[in-house]
Structure formats: structure tokens, C-alpha cells
Amino acid sequence: MPDDWDDAATTTPAERQASEALIVDVDGFEGPLDLLLMLSRTQKVDLRRISIVHLADQYLAFVARAQSVRLELAADYLVMAAWLAYLKSRLLLPPDPAEEGPSAADLAAHLAFQLARLEAMREASARLMARDQLGRDVFARGQPETLTARRHVTYTATLLDLMRAYARIRTKDEFRPYVMDRDNIYTMEQALDRMRGLIGHVGQWTDLASFLPEGWGTHPMRRRSATAAHFAAVLELAKRGQVDLRQSATFAPIHLRARSPE
Amino acid sequence: MNDAAEPGLFAVPPLAELERMVEAILFASSTPVMQADLAARLPHGADPAEALVALQRRYQGRGVMLGRVGEAWAFRTAPDLGHLMAREVQETRKLSRAAIETLAIIAYHQPVTRTEIEEIRGVAVSRGTVDQLLELEWVRFGRRRMTPGRPVTFVVTEGFLDHFGLESARDLPGLKDLRAAGLLDNRPLPGVSEVPYDDEAETTQIALFEEDP
Amino acid sequence: MNDAAEPGLFAVPPLAELERMVEAILFASSTPVMQADLAARLPHGADPAEALVALQRRYQGRGVMLGRVGEAWAFRTAPDLGHLMAREVQETRKLSRAAIETLAIIAYHQPVTRTEIEEIRGVAVSRGTVDQLLELEWVRFGRRRMTPGRPVTFVVTEGFLDHFGLESARDLPGLKDLRAAGLLDNRPLPGVSEVPYDDEAETTQIALFEEDP
Q1: Residue B55: how many CA atoms within 13 Å on its side-chain side?
Q2: Which end of chain B, N or C, is less packed with Cβ atoms under 10 Å?
Q3: From the candidates C76, C77, C80, C90, which should be mutated to test the interface with B, based on the most B CB atoms within 10 A?
């Protein structure tokens, strides 16, 4: 950082003009602090020795110019303008011992610090980017040899894992949602088709259970499903007037026979 | 940049410098570099031949060597150090869910055919799953079933019993024992409200031990 | 060149041999190899530290050089030969000014919170900017600050060090001067109580030098 503390305070009219000639283009700045940093550079002094009063003037002039050309300024630029106007007025007045809070000098020093810090980071980032960069100035091995991994995998499982797995399979079986179990389901449509083909041969009262198709009479689940389907089917046939049904008592076997055409 | 013909002066870099350049180019290149390409990338008029020879000599006996692949050049690991490029990895992994379930079914139902395993699991059993269990020597082929197709059966091995600390497959606890020991998390299947294992589950379990040889 | 250890007597290979091994391993990798990983790949009991020093010396002034990146090591082409490698240059997305500044702030002030970055830059840091740096793997999340809200912090990575040829974050250009000038201090705005990290400022600064990878 240049150490020209001495010719700090004042700026020449030429420099002032230069700053006023700044193109009023807020888009070029990343916020009020960035704009302040840009303006402060025209003072050509160590940022920590900058005249905040003068900087405030520069900033306020910039904002005035922007407004005179009806440039829409973001709110934070206006907030900064108001704050700088206030800071400037306090800096110009003799300090009021009754006033609370930080002194105007402290606030000004902090602003100077912020500007110096931002500038330092700008310079640091420039120096960083100027370094030799990998893939641009410096290169890694272009043909790396792959590290072949000779893997020795040991698989483990505990007895508990084994038992849990088994329990999972068995209980899944029991809890399997009913609809999934297509194998053991006999639908009413199937039963109806089947009964229509058989009904013509049933002149005698015959137990419904004897109509169950082969393979559906023993397995409990299959028997239940087939029985229900066939029962529903004969109810449908009875409704259509094709069969007669009878049952001697509750839960007694259901008998059916074909209704003779009238 | 230079007048080609005049060797020596400052136009063409000295050999030591050429050697550095060749070294860097070969190092960074993703493929072996043809000698002609190398020449093209060096300062005008420089011939890589001598630098290559010097470089090859320099790397003699080192961990990497400069080798020739047809007309092209590349650095390669010294042949005697090839073993460093392989890493021995000891890894302990849990068996996959498919594998542990298949193993459990074999253990509880042995001897059991693949089709039977699939029936019990409700999903196909991949070749790899069975192979893995065979490889682990926890499972082996049993006698063929005397049914059509004569399918092979699977049984568990001594190695299996050893690993799981069992005297025999008969010592595998049943579901009832598991539940009594509090080893089962009674988590219901998704969408199924909390249902305690019903009696049917138990009958299944008993049947399993009575019917299976 | 160095046969420090007596060959044959020890299981651990002599230095010259270790040097070859380290050379081969590092040459074969395009990314830095952690010293611990290096040790793990050498014969049991061998410490690569001495071999690394010898190797670094051996490659001094060559076309490729051995560099340190944090706790890791890598061979890289000599920076003065970059112009020969035009073919190898990877086109990278150009970083925005905001991203570059944010990166520098993270590097010099780490660990640093988003709020602190915003304070230094005087503008909000867009999500995309940080994302871009995270994606490049130049920046990662550090520990959370123990202040209200427990904000996350950002730190730079080994990848960042590797990319910019830094041995450690301590070697950032101008770091000492900036610190001496107080420009890395976390100085709060006088009289503003919104960010009460007065004691934090000190820890932050110390952390940079103690916690760095």
C-alpha cells in the first residue's frame, strides 16, 4: 500500500472534475460501497486517510446527477446518501458532548476501514487470479494410471440378521394385501361363466359345494374364494330366473337346481 | 521467431531446456505423443530426438520410465513397481437383503429348489445371489429332487453353521422363539395396520418343521 | 543416490527405493495424494517423508516439479512451461467478478459467514455465486458459528490450494501484510449492536491459522 500520508487531505480541481465527469451508470457498480470506493480513488490517498466529508460530497453529487437524468437508483444508494449527508453534517459541527452513541469521527473511520478492506480484497482477488493456475499454466499428469483396487470383501451377517430376514419373509406372506393374491382368487365372473355351462344339467337339488371346480375344494383360502364366487353367481342366476335355491337352515348347505322353463 | 538454419545461438533452446520441455509435454499429455507432434510443439527448429534420449537416460532406474509406443512416447510406471498401482482393500459388507433372505429360506427349508425359494420370497432369485452364497461357502448343492426336471436343491454348509454358531440347522429358532425373545420388530408392512402375528403364521411355522425333511 | 539404510537387513526398503516408489505413485495420479495414503501404499512401516524431500529436491528445475498441497503431494508441470501446453488447457467457465471477490474473501477471512462476506463486499451475495464456488470444489462448508442463528461458515478446500498452487492457506499472497494492516479484522460498525461478534473476531482470525487443513 502506498504510504503517501502527507499529500493526503486536498484534491486538485482537476481531480474533482474527473470525479464529476464519471459516467452516471449505476449498473456498473455493485452497491453503494463499491461506488464509494470508486469515488474515493479519485482522492489518490491512502483510503484510511481519506476525507470523508469530501467523499460524502462526491457521493451526493453523483446521486444528484443520477436523479437529474431521472435515473432510478436502488433504495440502498439513497439510504447511503442520507446517511452520508448526516455524517457530513456531524463531522462539520463541533462534537456535542451530550450526544450518545459513537462519535462522527468513529463512524467516518469505520467507513474508511470498510473501503480499505474492500479495496484490499479486490487487490487480493486480482493477485490470486494472477497466480499460476492448474489447467491454465500448470498441468497435472495427463495420463494418470488407474489404481486398480484388489478388493477383498468379507461378507458378514449375524444370526439375528438371518432370523429377521426369515421373519420378514414369513410375515410378509401373512400380511400380503388380499388383492395381490390373484392365484387364490376365483372371481364371480369366472363362476358365472362356469355355472351357465353347468346349470342345464342340474335337474335335481344339488349342493352348491359340489360345483366347486377341481383344485379349489381343499386349500382353505381357495375354497373360501371359490365358494363365495359361486354363491354370488347362483344368486345372480336366481335373479335372472334360471335357478331355484333353497337352504334348510342357517349355515346349512345351499342346494340349487335348474328352473324348468314355464 | 528465428531463422531455422542457424543452430546454437539463442533461437533454439539448449538441450537441457529442451529436455525440460519434452518432459513437461509428455507428462501433461493424455495420450502418448508422436515424435513429430512433439517437434511441432517445441520452439521452431528444435528437434526432440536428442532430448528424448537424454530424458530416457535420466529416468533410467527411476520410479517412472520414458517408454516408446510405436512412434509415440509416454511416461510409464517402472515395471517392477506395478504392484504399487493396485490397492488391497479389505472390506466388510453386510449381505444384501436378497442374499440374506435367500440364505434364510435355504436354512429353514433345506433342501430347497430355486423355484421353491422364489415361491417363498415372492420374487425371482437372481443367479448372482445364489452364486454369492455358494462362493461364501455358506450354501452348497444338495441332492436333485426326484420330480420332473430333476431340479437341484440347496442346503447350508458346515461353514454356514460355523459362521452363525449353530450346531445344526435344526437349532434355528422358529418365529415363536424369536418373538418370545423379543427379537422381532413387529413392524407391519406399509399400509397394513399393526397386526400381531396371528395363529396362522404360527401354524405355517410349525408345518415348516414338520413337513420339511 | 541415497542409500541411507543398509539394504537387506530391514524389511523397509532403503530410501532410494522408497523414493522410486513415491515417485511412481505420485506420477500415476492426476490429483494430489495425501501423505497418509502414500504411506499406506508403501511397504509396511515405510515413512514417505524423507523420500518426498529427496524427490522434491531431485525435481528442482526440471520440467515437472513436486509440490505440496496441504497434506497432499502432486507432480505438476513447471509454471514457466505453461505456454507449451496450450493443447491441454481446459476451457473453464469464466468466474464473475462477484465470484472471484467472494472466493478471495473466503480464502483470506476463513472461516467466514455469508453475512460477513456481504458486509465486506457491501452487497448481497447471490446464491448462485456461492453455488458456483461450491461446485468448483474450491469452497466448502466449515463449522457453524457459535453465535445466534448458528450460521454456517465457508472455508477454502484443498482443491482451491491445488488450483492456485498454494501449499496452505497461510501462503496466500499478501496475507501477512493484510493482517498487519488490520484489514482482516472483523471490526463491527461502531455503536451498531446488530452483529455482536466482538469476541468472535479474534477467534476467527486465530482459527484461520490453527484450523486450516
Answers
A1: 30
A2: C
A3: C77
